Amino acid sequence: MIEAPWNARVYRNRHGRGTRTPMFGTRLPRYRTRSGMFDDMVAAQLRRLNGAWPQLVQPVQFAVEDVPPYEPAPWEGEPNLNSRSFPAAHGVPARVVLYRMPIQGMAQNRMDMQLIIRDEMVARLAELYGRRPEEIDPDWGL
């Protein structure tokens, strides 16, 4: 398990004269990694959708991966590089996977990334339940 930097042991520097410390404080925005910020955005959108549609969101597992797999699934005609949904089968719940690197590459800024994440999550939920995305989120695609 990866330990938070502020809980990690402090080691001496290379010459043994002092301790190694972060170059910036743990409370500063730079301390956050891009993947951590992406995960927080996904969690915020998940909380928002769960507040509006708990019966649709709770049975679905959500995950974030860095890049999509090389080979698309045989039943997929045109693969979507941003996200993927997997229907429930044989005791395995339905899953939605968002791919971080393609989404970050498309986004121009943080707000744009939040909108892309929202649209991808709503589109995949709509795909799983056979609904139109506008039924789940009226602001979808705007």
Automatic annotation (TrEMBL):
InterPro entries: Zincin_1 (IPR010428), Zincin_1_sf (IPR038555). It comes from the Bacteria. This is Peptidase. It comes from Bifidobacterium ramosum.
